[in-house]
């Protein structure tokens, strides 16, 4: 895991992640407040290739710039996206570097953590207690599907970026 940040790679991965983040706003949502999360494939691929600091920077950039482009920068969406993204990144870091999980399992765990963080945050912000926790199984079901797809995308990204070196 390299410790040196590569600005060019960060810029490219952030640009792709933001593009997919914005594109996802046009996808139909199976349930309210749900985002597909495919842009997290770039965060996961960078986590694997460059380490947590680079992945953290792309995750923050994706969230801030994506919210700016979608008109949600000064709304609760920013807080939800940031909270879910950080929970996802922490869980993915632990899962992947434990050596037990591969890219797809790591992605599924990250998607589940993202959903859990958002459900807990919505409960705390809107009711002060875990009243939205009944939604978590529904979000987890969708997260397992999108986490798998995101993991496959991340795997493809890492396979292709090996050719860039």
Mean pLDDT: 90
Biggest sheet character: none
Number of helices: 6
Helix content: over 70%
Q: From the coordinates shown, what is the CATH architecture?
A: Orthogonal Bundle
In total, the number of domains comes to 1
Radius of gyration, taken over Cα atoms and rounded to an integer in Å: 15 Å
Low-confidence stretches: none
Q: What's the helix-strand series?
A: HHHHHH
Query: So what's the CATH class?
Result: Mainly Alpha
CATH topology: Arp2/3 complex 21 kDa subunit ARPC3
Name the overall outline.
globular
State which percent range the strand residues make up: under 5%
Distance between the termini: 14 Å
Record field, number of beta strands = 0
SS class: mainly alpha
């Amino acid at each position: 895991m390299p410790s040196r940040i590569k600005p060019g790679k960060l810029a490219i991965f952030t640009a792709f992640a933001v593009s997919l983040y914005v594109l996802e706003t046009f996808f139909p949502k199976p349930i309210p407040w749900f985002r597909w999360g495919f842009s997290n494939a770039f965060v996961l691929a960078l986590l694997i290739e460059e380490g947590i600091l680079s992945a953290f920077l792309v995750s923050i950039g994706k969230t801030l710039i994506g919210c700016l482009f979608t008109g949600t920068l000064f709304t609760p969406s920013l807080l939800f996206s940031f909270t879910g993204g950080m929970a996802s990144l922490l869980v993915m870091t632990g899962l992947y570097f434990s050596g037990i999980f591969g890219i797809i399992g790591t992605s599924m765990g990250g998607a589940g953590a993202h959903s859990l963080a958002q459900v807990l945050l919505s409960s705390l912000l809107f009711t002060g207690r875990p009243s939205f926790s009944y939604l978590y199984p529904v979000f987890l079901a969708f997260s397992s599907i999108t986490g798998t797809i995101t993991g496959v995308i991340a795997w493809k990204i890492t396979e292709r970026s090996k050719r860039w070196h």
